[in-house]
Write a structure and sequence with these properties.
α11 crosses α12. The strands form three sheets. The protein has a five-stranded parallel sheet, sandwiched between helices. The longest helix has 15 residues. Helix content is 45%, strand content 14%. The model has no long low-confidence stretch (mean pLDDT 95). β2 and β3 form a beta hairpin. The protein starts with a helix and ends with a strand. By secondary structure, the protein is α/β, with parallel strands linked by helices. It folds into two domains: 138 residues, no CATH class; 144 residues, 3-Layer(aba) Sandwich (Cobalt-precorrin-4 Transmethylase, domain 1).
């Protein structure tokens, strides 16, 4: 079992074995802040900090009868004592954590998170009702306001879905343009429908441009810099010139929304065709706009 799932189950066991969905997310977030390497990452969502990975882990553990859902509660049904399986430091931290937060739940717990971590209230639907005027101003101060024309490219290699989405939020990206030919991924959150649902739920439009992708058979046996150079030279010389309509569509979206991101897999933009797509877009625009690879 993944160690992060043991953390999640241990936290639930420490707090009596059952928690509401919202309380689990908030407590898991607060506990993760104590860890040198957090077990879970979070994004600012409709009710504050939210981890898609934690939510997915709970769904998996429900499938394997380790957790059950009952009357808006998640309850541990696994009889194993996972607290005893944690590293010593994590067990000690968990006891201290429980003593600090054992009497905080529901709206009080949400308010505590919003007050101490206002970034995670950015997209909250209830922050204005829970916080006083001064506290809410601390949230609004963190809303990204940069609105100049900027093109971003982003790869998800080596990133969690939460890390990835937080980068988009902080750059105030308005439209995410997926330039993968086949937008499927073994990594949770990055297949087309998952990614579309996640980003659109926080106000970022998702668009797919499959014609700007590279066929998977051309991506075989890429072992050297020369292999990549040949691949991208072919893309620039033989693919992009035939995709004028797609580049025109990208141009229209960029001019309308100002801050868009081209996304694909590779972490290094130099090893990804998205950087060449960005070049083609700027050639079409014929202006010296800013491009930032994140």
């Amino acid at each position: 079992m993944y160690y992060r799932r043991k953390i999640l189950l241990s936290l639930m066991q420490q707090f009596g074995g059952s928690l509401t969905r919202t309380d689990l997310q908030k407590l898991l977030f607060l506990y993760s802040q104590k860890q040198i390497e957090p077990s879970y990452q979070f994004i600012p969502y409709k009710f504050g900090c939210f981890s898609y990975q934690a939510n997915q882990d709970v769904s998996t553990m429900i499938k394997y009868n380790q957790i059950e859902e009952s009357n808006s509660l998640w309850r541990v049904t696994d009889k194993e004592n996972y607290i005893n399986q944690l590293k010593m430091k994590d067990r000690i931290d968990l006891v201290q954590f429980y003593n600090k937060f054992k009497n905080l739940k529901g709206e009080g717990l949400i308010k505590y998170v919003y007050e101490n971590y206002p970034y995670y209230a950015l997209n909250s639907e209830i922050a204005k009702d829970i916080l006083d005027e001064y506290q809410f101003s601390k949230v609004t101060e963190l809303k990204p306001t940069n609105n100049d024309y900027s093109l971003f490219t982003i790869g998800y290699e080596g990133k969690s879905i939460e890390d990835y989405v937080n980068q988009l939020i902080k750059e105030n990206v308005k439209v995410l343009c997926d330039v993968r030919k086949n937008p499927l991924s073994m990594k949770y959150g990055f297949s087309k429908n998952q990614l579309k649902n996640i980003v659109e739920n926080i106000g970022i439009q998702y668009l797919h441009f499959p014609e700007l992708g590279i066929d998977s058979d051309k991506r075989q046996d890429l072992n050297t810099n020369e292999d990549y150079k040949k691949l991208f030279d072919d893309y620039v010389e033989n693919t992009l010139p035939t995709k004028e309509n797609d580049i025109n569509n990208l141009s229209d979206i960029f001019l309308k929304d100002k801050r868009i991101a081209l996304t694909c897999f590779e972490a290094d933009y130099k090893c990804c065709h998205r950087s060449r797509t960005a070049d083609a877009l700027f050639t079409k625009l014929n202006k010296n706009y800013q491009v930032k690879h994140i």
